[in-house]
Every structure is written in C-alpha cells, then in structure tokens.
Specification:
Layout: E1 19-23, E2 26-29, H1 30-46, E3 54-58, H2 65-74, E4 78-81, H3 88-98, E5 102-105, H4 113-116, E6 122-125, H5 128-136, E7 151-158, E8 164-170, H6 171-184, E9 192-195, H7 202-214, E10 217-220, H8 226-235, E11 240-243, H9 245-254, E12 266-269, H10 276-286, E13 290-296, E14 301-306, E15 324-325, E16 330-334, E17 348-353, H11 365-371, E18 378-386, E19 392-397, E20 402-404, E21 407-409, H12 411-418, E22 424-434, E23 438-447, H13 454-460, E24 473-476, H14 490-498
Parallel strand pairs: 1-10, 3-4, 3-5, 5-6, 9-10, 9-11, 11-12, 12-13, 23-24
Antiparallel strand pairs: 1-2, 7-8, 13-14, 14-15, 16-17, 17-18, 18-19, 20-21, 22-23
C-alpha cells in the first residue's frame, strides 16, 4: 500500500519540526503529531481497547482530531467522528448503533455526554486530564499488522428510513483516494491549507488527510463566520481551501470591495448544488481557482472533479457539470428500473465502481446489498446524465435527499418526527431553493384536527432534529398529491411551494 492512515504523518525527518496543524495561534508539528498519535494508540490498548472497537469522537475541529484519527488506526480501532450538531435523540441513536467502547469529548460538548455515554463507555475529556494520560502512555507503537481492508473510519449518514447508517471506510479506500487527489488539488509541502468545514463529514476528512499526506500546513478555522474565514484567507497566506457553496455565497456577500487573495491557488467546493449567480460571483472574487467536486460518504468523498479552467467562458454549460471521474473511477448512468447502461444525455442513476467504494454499512447487510451490486458497482441514488466527453451533470436526486448548506437531510427522518405530532395525519418533506443555503427543508402537512398552525409544527421539531433539518416552510393541505401508485409527487410539492406567493 502507498498509504495507510496508521503510517501518517509520512514526512521526511527534515520536516518533522514544521507545523502540521495550526489553530488560533497554537501549532502542532508533524513530529509532535506522530508522537502523540503513538501515545494515544498505546494508551488505548493499555486501557483495554482491542482491534475493531469503536471510539466516538465528540469534538469540534481541534488540534487533537488528527492525532486521534491516526492513533485509533495505529491501535486497530475504528474512529467514529459524530455530528455534534445533531439533536440529543439523534446522537443517542448513532452511539447505540456504533456500540462504541470509548468516547473522546471536548469540554465544550460535555453537556451532550448523557446522550452517548453509558456504563460500557470509557470517557476521555480533552484538556489537562487527557494531556496527563497521554504523557503517561507508552511511546512505542502497538505491535499490530495493518491490512488494506481494515476499517479505520465509520462516518454516519442518515438513511432514507430515518435510521442512522455507519459508512465503513478502509485503509484501501483511503489509499486510493488520498494519494490520488493530493497532486490533482496541487497540495504540496509549501501549501497552506484552510480547513473550515466540520470533521464529521467525509469531505473535510479527505481534505485534511490530503494536506497531511502532502506535508502541507493546515490551518483549522476558528469558526465558520465569513469575517473569520476572510481573515484566514488574507492573513494566513492560504493557498488551498475546501468550502461548501453556502460558505462561498456568504464570503461573496461580505468580502470588502477590492478584496484580493494573491496566494490562493485552489478553492475546492462541493457537497451541495451551487447557483449560477454564486458561481459567477465566486469567480470574480477568487479568480479562476474553483474546482467543483462530487462524491458521497460511501465513495470516500469526491469521485468527479471539474478542475479550474481559466480559459472556460463564464457562460459555458460545463460550469454546471460536476466534471469528469478521476482516472481510477468507473462512472456510468444506469436505468433505475433495469440497471442497464444508458447513452449520453439520457437521465438515469449515477453508478460508480472503484477501490474508493465503501465495503458497506456497519451492521446493515440488507442496506449494504441495496447499495452495492455483486460485481462491485455502487448505486449512488443520485440522478443525472453524462455528455459525450464524460462530464457528469447532476439533474435530480433519485432519493429526494435535501442538501442544505452542505448538510444531507433525508425527508423520511423529518417526516417521522412530524408524524409524532398528534395533529398530523399525513406529511411529505422536500427541498426548496434557498439563496443562502442552496436548499431549505419544506414540509406539506395534512392536519388531523382543525386549528393546527405552521408555527406549532416547526416548534415541535425543536430538540428532536438538528437545526438544519428542521422545516423552514410548512404548507397545510387538504391532501397530498400522489400518483396512481400512491407515491407522493414531491416534485409537484417542490415546484408549487417554490413559486407560492401566499405566506406559509
């Protein structure tokens, strides 16, 4: 293998004193990262954790994040970064599904421990206690053979049934993705990379690991506020960054007149649709450095890329594409019903095959069989078409997923919560265009009793759903539009809600 998470950081001895990660003026060098990851691995094994055990990471983006990821891999453990923005009930479901033996928690998130911790868990809070424990741990690697198909990460994404699904990612997945994209993104030892998206998402994990593999210095953003990010871009000599379209839109809104970023060479973006307006404004603000990517947690992140093209006219239809598959990726459009390959410009479901594909979902054999075909193809659930040159155009989402600000929201899980309200007889959830977030969550509800209000329904979801999953728009209807087979016509709901003039 050319890459194992357990082997990182793989930098020459001469560079071990260089900063690997920087946050709020504090840095950790490659050498320190290496030593701390080894001590975590040895300490975890001494504490009784064994290969295959899950370790929840309930932490925001922190300097300790990558030492924990590498340390878990060196000990044969599976790191499970969890979305701390989830409602407590959702966190409990994820923790129960993972069956974690330990949890590392940031003190700022200690109030959420009750939602994930039980008697079977070892709790390790970051801070002085963690530092003392690390210092007392052995400084030698645990004796362990690392294999290509070892699972090293378990990243959670909600299923269409509303049940959390743990996407398994292996050394082989990372060995395919990280060394492949690092040179394509232009990352090297002279790069200064800005990591501004949360590390419980595969996009941020891929970005951080690519920077680490390249020997770049990665700056962890203090927060995601536009002023903070603009400050990093101008003051920290940032050459590379990964953003989602909602962040790009806010930067375009708040950048001062004449703002310039002469060091910037690459702005990678993805995770949600980008509007033509935001794309054009971003080109004016940042210059011809935009790289659009498309991928899933199940594909270890990006599998296609539309690379920066300084000579491509701003009105070219190619700007609306997600680019071409990487050379090591097979990409086809298949008929959803028959599974047969369709010709260029014909809509179908996006299928992909490569060593980036997950081996499946943790503990969910039926869902894994639905995701992966016997001959290795992965059904993405996304719809689109290819042109004659192999450029991918995503034209619809087969699974009706809503992508709001880079966050995936599955209608079924929001519908399940709304159906718990005694006044709801029927409900359908869908996405509507939103200038700031790309899409916003909307719901159409058939009341069971008179007097039900939209404000009451939205308030009902508080504490039961993460903020980005809560409906921003609710329509009260006498009945939901359905086809002859009884399926809800979400597209009709989406279109009529997006063009509605009445308050909702």
């Amino acid at each position: 293998m050319t890459y194992l998470l357990a082997d990182q950081p793989s930098v020459p001895v001469a560079h071990r004193d260089r900063a690997a990660f920087v946050r709020l003026g504090t840095a950790v060098s490659f050498g320190e990262l290496d030593a701390r990851a080894t001590r975590f691995a040895a300490g975890a094994r001494a504490a009784g954790l064994r290969p295959g055990d899950r370790v929840l990471l309930l932490i925001p983006n922190a300097l300790e994040t990558f030492e924990l990821l590498i340390g878990c891999a060196r000990a044969g453990l599976v790191a499970v970064p969890v979305n701390w923005r989830l409602a407590p009930e959702e966190l409990t479901a994820v923790a129960a599904d993972a069956g974690a033996r330990a949890v590392v928690v940031d003190p700022a998130l200690a109030h959420l421990l009750w939602a994930v911790a039980d008697s079977a868990l070892t709790v390790l809070p970051l801070g002085p206690g963690y530092e003392a424990w690390l210092a007392d741990s052995p400084s030698t690697h645990p004796a362990l053979r690392h294999r290509p198909d070892d699972v090293v990460l378990q990243v959670y994404t909600s299923g269409t049934s509303g049940r959390p699904k743990g996407v398994l990612l292996t050394n082989r997945n990372l060995a395919t993705k990280v060394p492949g994209v690092t040179p394509r993104w232009g990352l090297d030892a002279d790069s200064r990379s800005l990591l501004a998206t949360p590390l419980f998402h595969v996009g941020a994990l891929s970005w951080g690991l690519a920077g680490l593999h390249a020997g770049a210095t990665t700056v962890l953003a203090g927060d995601a506020a536009p002023a903070t990010l603009l400050g990093h871009l101008t003051d920290d000599g940032i050459t590379h960054t990964f953003l989602v379209p909602a962040m790009i839109a806010r930067l375009c809104d708040e950048a001062p007149p004449g703002a310039a970023f002469p060091a910037l060479r690459t702005v990678l973006y993805g995770a949600s649709p980008i509007s033509s307006d935001v794309q054009e404004r971003a080109l004016r603000l940042f210059g011809p450095v935009l790289h659009q990517v498309y991928g899933l947690s199940e594909t270890t992140g990006s599998l296609t890329e539309l690379a920066a093209a300084p000579d491509l006219p701003a009105d070219s239809p190619l700007w609306r594409s997600a680019g071409k598959a990487y050379p090591w990726i097979e990409l086809e459009i298949r008929d959803r019903a028959t599974g047969e390959r369709v010709p260029p410009h014909v809509f179908g479901e996006v299928w992909t095959r490569s060593a980036q594909n997950t081996p499946g979902y943790f503990g969910l054999p039926a869902e894994t069989a639905e995701l992966l075909t016997p001959d290795g193809w992965l059904r993405t659930g996304d719809g689109g078409h290819l042109d004659e040159d192999g450029n991918l155009f995503l034209t619809d989402r087969v699974k009706d997923m809503v992508v709001s600000g880079g966050e995936n929201v599955y209608p079924a899980e929001v519908e399940a919560v709304l159906r718990r309200h005694p006044g709801v007889a029927d409900v359908a959830v869908f996405g509507v265009p939103d200038d700031r977030w790309g899409e916003a969550v909307a719901a159409a509800v058939v009341p069971r009793v008179p007097g039900l209000t939209t404000d009451e329904l939205i308030a009902f979801t508080d504490g039961l759903l993460a903020g980005y999953k809560r409906p921003r728009t609710v329509r009260l209807l006498d009945e939901l539009p359905r086809n002859a087979a009884g399926k809800v016509l979400r597209r009709r709901l989406r279109d009529t809600t997006a063009t509605a003039t009445e308050p909702v």
